[in-house]
Design a protein that fits this description.
With 121 residues, this protein is mainly α. It has a domain at 27-90: Winged helix-like DNA-binding domain superfamily/Winged helix DNA-binding domain (Arc Repressor Mutant, subunit A), CATH 1.10.10. The chain has helices at residues 27-34, 41-45, 53-65, 87-90, 93-120, and strands at 39-40, 69-74, 80-85. The longest helix has 28 residues, at 93-120.
Length: 121
């Protein structure tokens, strides 16, 4: 039998919010779109089929709040807005690439585990 877990094992830790908003399925895809450079809102909508303008706006605002994206507004009619990854946002591209490679390598195992679990439940 293994040792019981210490009930105070996290006592010294702050309540840390994960850096990526994992509930936002669009954040990683937005980062991939912004990897080559600045993009306008309408440009982001093209590869992100299925995202509503509202959800794209909310996602970009959350990413801006977290310091991953900058938003630059230019005067004019209609107003022009561009989004770009910050250095902090760019620093996530490497770990994100590793996560994608892991997912590709283990996708069949993951799907098999899910199917086995669903069949047993």
């Amino acid at each position: 039998m293994s040792e019981p877990l210490d009930p105070d094992m996290f006592a010294g830790c702050r309540n840390i919010v994960p850096p990526m908003r994992m509930h936002n399925k669009w954040a990683l895809k937005i980062m991939v779109c912004l990897e080559p450079g600045r993009r306008r809102f309408s440009e982001l909508q093209v590869p992100l089929r299925g995202i509503t303008p509202k959800v794209l706006t909310e996602s970009l605002r959350a990413m801006e709040r977290d310091g991953f994206v900058t938003r630059t507004a230019y005067p004019g009619v209609p107003p022009r807005v561009e989004y770009e990854l910050t250095d902090l946002g760019r620093s996530l591209l490497g770990p994100m690439d590793a996560w994608c490679r892991w997912s590709e390598e283990h996708l069949t195992e993951l799907e098999a585990a899910r199917e086995a679990y669903d069949a047993a439940v």
